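Q: Here's a chain of 332 amino acids. Please give me its 3D structure as C-alpha cells.
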Amino acid sequence: MRQAKPNHASIPRPARAAAPVADACAVTRQTPGARVAAFDLDRYLAERAALVERELARVVPESNGPASTLSAAMRYSLLGGGKRLRPILALAACEAVGGRIENAIGFACAIEMIHTYSLIHDDLPCMDDDDLRRGRPTNHKVYGEAIATLAGDGLLTDAFTIAARAPSAAGPLVVLDTLAELAEAAGSSGMVGGQVIDLLDEGRPVDLAQLEYLHSKKTGALFLTAVRGGARLGGADSAQLAALAEYARAVGLAFQVIDDVLDVESSTERLGKRTQKDQASGKATYPAILGLEESRRLARQLEQRALQALGAFDQRADALRYLASFAVERAA
C-alpha cells in the first residue's frame, strides 16, 4: 500500500502527520511526546468511504412497496461506487476544526445524494447521453429515462430530509444556514446554473476566465458547500470558514482541471466512463485552452493555494492537506 503524500518540493508540509485512523468514526487524538505514524491516505479514504457507504445504504433503504422500482434505481446509482470525495471532504473539514464527524455524517450523505442525482441527470440522452458510469451501465440504460429522471429527483429532494433530520450538536440556526447554503450550491445559482452554462457554451469560443466561472458553479459550488458545511457543523468560527472556503475553491477547480486532463489522457476502462467526449461535443476544457502540460501546472498551483489556505490549522487538518494532493495526483 502506498504512503500517499505530496510529491512537489515546493508544497508546504504538515507540521506533523496525523496517525492512521483507528476507527472510521473516531477523531484522531495525539498523545504528547508519542511517535506519530505517517498519514496513510489509502487507508483513510477506504475507511471514510466505507463509513459513507454504510450510512447511505441506511438512509436510502430498500423498499418493497409500490415505489420499489424507484428505490432500486436510486440505490443502483447511489451505491454504485465512486471516490466519495465530497462527503469525505465534509467529514475532514469537520475534524479539522475539532468537531466530531457524527455531527456531519448526515450532511455528508446529503452531499453525495445530490452529487449522484446530478450524475444520473447528466447521463440522460437529453444531456450528455452517456451509457457508462463508474464502470456500469448508466441509470437510464437499466431503468429507462423516466425512472432515471425520477430517481435523480428523489435523491435531490430526500437529501434535504436526511441533512435536516440528522443528529447534530450544532444549534438550529447553524443547521438552517448549512441547509440554505447547500440548496444554493445545488440550485440555479450553483450547480444547475453551471450545467446550463456548460450546455449553452458547447461549440462556442470560451476563454479561461469564462471556463473558471463555469466550473466554479458546475463543480466548485458543491465542493465549497461540502467543506464549509462540514466545518460549520463541527463548530468552525468565521476565520476558519473563510480559510476553508479558499481551500475548497482551489481544490474544486483543481479537481475539474484534472478531470479534463484525464478525459484526454486516460481510458474508458480506467475511468469507468466514456473518455474523449468533451472534444467530441465541442465543450471548452482546460487542455483545449492551455494544453495538457499547462493544465497540470495550473492544477499544481491550485494545490499549492489550497495548502497555503490551511496554514493556520494544526495536524487535525492533515487529511484536508493530503486530499488536496489526491485531487491533483489521481489517475481516475
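Q: Can you summarize the key feature?
A: The two ends are 17 Å apart (CA to CA).
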